[in-house]
Design a protein that fits this description.
By secondary structure, this protein is α/β, with parallel strands linked by helices. It has 17 helices and 22 strands. Helix 12 runs parallel beside helix 16. The longest helix has 16 residues. It binds 1-O-alpha-D-glucopyranosyl-D-fructose and calcium ion. Calcium ion binds next to loops.
Length: about 550
């Protein structure tokens, strides 16, 4: 069976984290008018679908992933009129917008939760999960993604409520049909405004194992997979979202999939499942996360990454679909994590761009990655803003870890790395704001910024732009079969993409070393793109990437 053709397989997603994208009014916080002023830049780059991280009313405990009003725009970001202008600004440029919907949990400042916690007899009580404690403590041993127990005691009622994320993010009770109907109204509201789809935050978590048994898994990752995700009614609920809302529109959905392994991926995105169109699986992103998560690091390497890409290609077959990405607002900058952001920042950024844009799946580019923005180094804990980092700083230092040791780990793996503001120019604050940015700029904005990139034809930006243009016109890079070509050296990644009479050969060196490569099996090939000019026949320069068109008869 051939892969079904769909617009959301052919287009490319660009993620905007609005707080850090562009500030138009000098309050140091990115906003919607700031995005609107950069739509031509995004069009010029050549991306198609904007994934906008949450812009709804929120107390910003988790920077908008704690929603207190799903129908209103947070005043920091602007007004509903600004939103309407953004949406039409994208549509007149032939671009699309998908909203980030967070429906596994709301903010504790949402009116639903205020009513729910008000009294045990509230008609909103079971909009959330309330349980009595056990042996003087929480109902079970579940831990929050952000450290500590996943249960918070309400002293007034003596009951605990569930929050798999922060205590200001109480989990919504999807068993309650009233909750589901409320959510379907929210989704329809935004789709009726013309939004082109949704990124669905932690969607595999919405069905809970109602016995709420203690977790016995050895690592947090396994708890996520076997306790929090893939619950007994998850597919029933997602099918209902589809039947009740999504199926009535020509829209796309991408589920964020913590806990979705390659063995269950197809249950969510199989073309005949009537559930989601694609997922952001996180297997490669959680690489290195130890038993206690991202601040408890384990070694990994490119063999792990390549194994995961192959496993997911095989498991998706021609029926499922994934997005291909290497960073987003939750993980370190890709050039710092998977490339070399020092002496090979330009070359390795381009190599990683070629990987993302030539694998099979819908590519997703995170804001600023197109100009090779890097991780940031903060020297004091006060510079960090992410509650996940701040919570674990307390947890690990209370257990005796030296503050500087934790700060070193956070500088490598923390989420603030990808939340420093976009560097538009070498002007003050990188041209992001005329005020004081909500989080410190990365001091390298003097040499790494959009203005410099646009004036340098060898920049990472133009490499992305050329690749995006090429991919748009190359069905083989969108739909083509993917085959890995074995190589002697472990430093290289060589694969082909084939579709009808079109074929490409992609050759990547993911190391700091000169690495042997054997392309003798491909005599008839035409070099289309590379990140070096002075190439050698059988040796790849550090971080070298090449895209060849294959002549097949
Ligand atoms: O992320 C949830 C998640 O599973 C991880 O991707 C996330 O990196 C977490 O920090 C594990 O370390 C989603 C959102 O993308 C994230 O920004 C939110 O904080 C979270 O859900 C809660 O809404
Ligand atoms: Ca602003």
């Amino acid at each position: 069976m051939e892969v079904e053709k769909k617009w959301w397989k052919e287009q490319v997603i660009y993620q905007i984290y609005p707080r850090s994208f562009n500030d138009s009014n000098g309050d140091g916080i990115g906003d919607i008018p700031g995005i609107i002023s950069q739509l031509d830049y995004l069009k010029y780059l050549g991306v198609d679908i904007i994934w906008l991280s949450p812009i709804y009313d929120s107390p910003n405990d988790d920077n908008g992933y704690d929603i207190s009003d799903y129908y209103n725009i947070h005043p920091e970001f602007g007004t509903m009129e600004d939103f309407d202008a953004l949406l039409s600004g994208l549509h007149i440029r032939g671009m699309k917008l998908i909203m980030d919907v967070v429906v596994n949990h709301s903010s504790d400042e949402h009116e639903w939760f205020k009513k729910s916690i008000a009294s045990k007899d509230s008609d909103h009580r079971n909009y959330y999960y309330w349980k009595p404690g056990k042996n003087g403590g929480p109902p079970n041993n579940w831990q929050s993604f952000f450290g500590g127990s996943a249960w918070e005691l309400d002293p007034k009622s003596g009951e605990y409520y569930l929050h798999i994320f922060s205590k200001k993010q109480p989990d919504l009770n999807w068993e309650n049909e009233k909750v589901r109907n409320e959510i379907y109204k929210i989704l329809a509201f935004w789709l009726d405004k013309g939004v082109n789809g949704f990124r669905m935050d932690v969607i595999p978590l919405i069905s809970k194992r109602l016995e709420f048994a203690d977790a016995t898994q050895p690592t947090f990752g396994k708890v996520v997979e076997e306790v929090y995700s893939n619950g007994p009614r998850v597919h029933e609920f997602i099918k209902e979202i589809n039947e009740r809302v999504l199926s009535k529109y020509d829209v796309m959905t991408v589920g964020e999939g913590p806990g979705i392994s390659k063995d269950v991926g197809l249950n969510y995105v199989g073309h005949d499942r009537g559930e989601l169109n694609m997922i952001f699986h996180l297997d490669h992103m959680f690489l290195g996360f130890g038993p206690r998560g991202r601040f408890d690091q384990l070694p990994y390497n490119w063999n792990d990454i390549k194994r995961i890409f192959k496993d997911w290609y095989v498991s998706m077959g021609t029926s499922g679909w994934v997005s291909i990405f290497l960073d987003n607002h939750d993980f370190a900058r890709l050039v710092s994590r998977f490339g070399n952001d020092k002496e090979f920042r330009n070359e390795s950024s381009k190599m990683l761009a070629m990987l993302i844009l030539t694998m099979r799946g819908t590519p997703c580019i995170y804001q600023g990655t197109e100009i090779g923005m890097t991780n940031v180094t903060f020297n004091k804990i006060e510079d960090f803003k992410d509650l996940e980092t701040l919570n674990f700083y307390k947890e690990f230092t209370n257990e005796g870890m030296a503050p500087d040791e934790f700060i070193g780990i956070a500088n490598e793996n923390g989420r603030d790395n990808v939340r420093t503001p976009i560097q538009w120019s070498g002007a003050d604050n990188g041209g992001f704001t005329d005020g004081k940015p909500w989080i410190a700029m990365n001091p390298n904005y003097n040499e790494i910024n959009v203005e410099a990139a646009l004036s340098d034809k060898q920049s990472i930006f133009y490499f992305y732009k050329e690749l995006l243009h090429l991919r748009k016109n190359a069905p083989a890079l969108i739909y083509g079969e993917w085959d890995v070509i074995d190589q002697e050296s472990e430093n290289v990644y060589v694969y082909t993409r084939k579709f009808d009479k079109n074929a490409y050969l992609i050759v990547l060196n993911h190391s700091d070393e000169h690495s042997a490569v054997d392309l003798n099996a491909f005599s008839a090939k035409l070099l289309v793109m590379s990140n070096y000019n002075n190439r050698m026949k059988d040796v790849l320069i550090p971080w070298e990437c090449r895209l060849y068109k294959l002549m097949i008869n």
